[in-house]
Amino acid sequence: MNNPLLRPYFEKLTERDKTALMQEMADRYGLQFKGLQRFCRWDRSCTTGVFEKGGREFVFVPGDTVTIGWERFETGLDEENLEELYDVFEEYEYKGTPEEFIGEDMAPVRQVTVAPMLAGRKLEEIGWEPVSFQDPRLLEHPDWLQAFQEHQRAGMRGLNLAGCARFHCTDGRWEAFLYHDVTYDELKELLNRQGFSLPTADEWAYLCGGGCRTLFPWGDGLKSGMHLYHFSEAADAGRPYDMEEPNFFGLSIAYDPYKQELVEADAAATCGGDGGCCICGGEGPLLGYLPCSPHRKPEIQEDDVLDNDFHFYRPIIRVWQ
């Protein structure tokens, strides 16, 4: 029997049948079904259900069997991307080919079957607790408040006291946050109690790339004129960041190399970024964003304690028919 929760069959359902299926799913998993929405990006599209639970938005992502991992270009790099690579090759006296160089960081090619799931649309922060400016835990650190006040008077809109507190201005209103250490196992246990999980690395690759065979979901390199975090000009302020816009599943995913997305594994592991290492090392946009490729090997973290400034998570619910 054809499973309507798998992508080849889900895409053929009428909107009426999809709506009935989504409402049944909402009732089963305790979510509010907000309606169907069509997401189009990079020549692919999906009309799927949008849900809400506890202030989070989820989308239904149908399951599929796809090929992930990378070993060669499908269309090749343009001159601008190649020029960046060859500059690096010259600096490090690298004698290999672009495919060999990039392939060192890519996962092996393989076929995987991904179960249907409800996936959180946005990354979520770890270990930052919103608090009142009158919270006793904040008031007992007048040096933090003094630093914030000086920052505020200087006309700045945010201050991060690493490992302590954070202050941020949104729409003219300042908010305060306290930092808490969180371990990988503690995060997984918390999500489990809430009825959620982390995606595996294979599931993350599917959510990000949808089974694309190119280096990125849109092609083999970065496109000229893309609006990218950390590389765009000041004149682009206010313009949406290309990679942060919802993808063909409706997910905001792999758009900032500084943001590492935690995945399910035996030890703390991340996809979608390298904490900005390549960018801080002076690499250009292509190499800076290479860690955002859906095919890149997961990065195993040094220990179980998470870094609340660089580690983020996406809750999912695996769905069974």
TrEMBL record:
It comes from Acetatifactor muris. This is Formylglycine-generating sulfatase enzyme. Gene3D superfamilies: paralog of FGE (formylglycine-generating enzyme) (3.90.1580.10). The lineage of its organism: Bacteria, Bacillati, Bacillota, Clostridia, Lachnospirales.
